[in-house]
Amino acid sequence: xxxxxxxxxxxxxxxxxxxxxxxxxxxxxxxxxxxxxxxxxxxxxxxxxxxxxxxxxxxxxxxxxxxxxxxxxxxxxxxxxxxxxxxxxxxxxxxxxxxxxxxxxxxxxxxxxxxxxxxxxxxxxxxxxxxxx
Length: 133
Hints:
The chain is an alpha+beta fold. It has helices at about 25-40, 45-50, 120-130; strands at about 1-10, 55-65, 75-85, 85-95, 100-110.
């Protein structure tokens, strides 16, 4: 289950050297994850309202491979690695014309309103399950 999201690098994304400031890659992959969840048909606002559950980043392992620059068109690719009752692991890439610039493995957890771990609702788990052939 892979998802692709396109974005452009703006001046505000860059540092004095004209390359993307390292922390902005985390913003880019956050946008990619949000669009991936939306493409799955999961409404995060409704998830919080109806179930009191939100996704939170538990862990990020990141590799900065090559710099992106002002006005580059980038692709954020998100792929599900695994999902359990309360944890989702994703691989995310930032590419420019197919060239890998940034790679991350991101672990998401579900939290309730009190900030404690919570299980994903069954309908969300179902959307994350690989299709049966």
